[in-house]
Amino acid sequence: MDGGVPTAIAAGERLTRELRRAWAKGQRAATPLDCHETWTPAPERDPIALLEQQAAERVPELVPIRHGRMLASPFSYFRGAALPMAADLAGTPTSGITTQLCGDAHLSNFGFFGSPERHLVFDVNDFDETLPGPWEWDVKRLATSFEIAARENGYTSKQRASIVRRSVRSYREAMRNFANQSMLEVWYARLDIDELLPEFQSLLDPKRTPAVWRAVSKARAHDSLDAFSKLAEIVDGEARIVHNPPLIVPVEHFVENTDRAMAMQVLGTLLDRYLETLLPDRRHLLEQYRFAHFARKVVGVGSVGTEAWIALFVDHDHGTPLFLQVKEAQASVLEAYVGPSAFENHGQRVVVGQRLMQAATDIFLGWERIKRFGVIDRDYYLRQLRDWKGSADVAGMTAEGMDLWARMSGWTLARAHARAGDRIGIASYLGKSDTFDNAVAQFAVTYADQNERDYASLQSAVEQGRLEAEMGM
Fold this sequence. Notes:
The protein is of the alpha+beta class. It has helices at residues 7-10, 17-30, 47-55, 63-70, 74-80, 82-89, 135-152, 157-179, 183-188, 198-201, 210-221, 224-231, 260-275, 280-286, 335-338, 346-357, 399-420, 423-430, 435-463; strands spanning 98-101, 110-114, 120-124, 131-134, 191-192, 232-235, 238-241, 248-250, 289-297, 308-315, 321-328, 366-371, 377-384.
């Protein structure tokens, strides 16, 4: 044995199913399921200091926009507070079983997008913080997000508890099913909207779950043509991204003493390097498009302040548009608590984690490292900007709709963890009872209370001038 881990596991050997089950059940005795409800704030805890730490590594003029978006509501704060929660989770009990984590598994980071086969699927869709770590951390962040969102929607305490427990129960039961399947069956498992599992299909209803139903319809309309109508225009016969500062700023507005043609040439070279990270068939496909324009675009909540760009391409033969999103990948918020990434390039870290956890990954997913106009080394990953992508309107969800979202999210997170980690060990640790479900539901209540206090601290920090915030952006 090595620190409680079987020597064979520590050495990287593959143990039998029976030994993994036995070891995981032993871990349940050492770390009982009901202890997962426990969390006490550390005496030195300062979430605002952690936000300041992140701000120091971001684009200065965009940081107030990030804080402003976090001030929209306690749930919006929670979306941007992955780092404070990672610090808090580091002090909670774990089973000793790890997997690839999403790292920011809140309910708005689950949604719909198009698979390479042009099916609409439901999956995790944000991997900026992905890193190997304790599987419980993703489950607790997901469950807490439902508690916070349900509070904002005015659900009763009974409804909230039911929804939160549903998300954890869905995870536990799905993991148990995956533990009894072959690895290939697990790898192919996915929530295809056209072929939903029966337990989800009966609940997708325009009257009972209207927000989820609308999300499915809207996702199919979100593609590059739709993006072009909102983000681009034709100027002197050429496709150009609109100038809408500070949210959308074309590249030429960042380059001093350099004409547009030279800036575009430099960016074209950078995109050529990204092509080298794609499979040959995807590279061939992208080469059928001509690079047309480039702009910085502010996106999301938690990622605001990192470098995020959009690249516009045009089909050589038909002139139809294609948008790629170019997102900066900084060190994961988990690194300080689980150790550094095995990948030197954080863009590669994101891509590898996404490919490992997602059932169907964007065909243009790749990475690169560049100097921003010869000044700063930054890591990036690239993907399509809109590819049938859609997420439910949380504020517009009925309680039944949020319950359905909890079911799908829990199932999907279990599938992602089962692909990347020891599904047999996790399932054996969780067992058949609802003890873990109830424990995490209580944790979610406790942490949601803390989240409200942290949200109030952010409000005070802005009022006192400690942080800057720009509202309405």
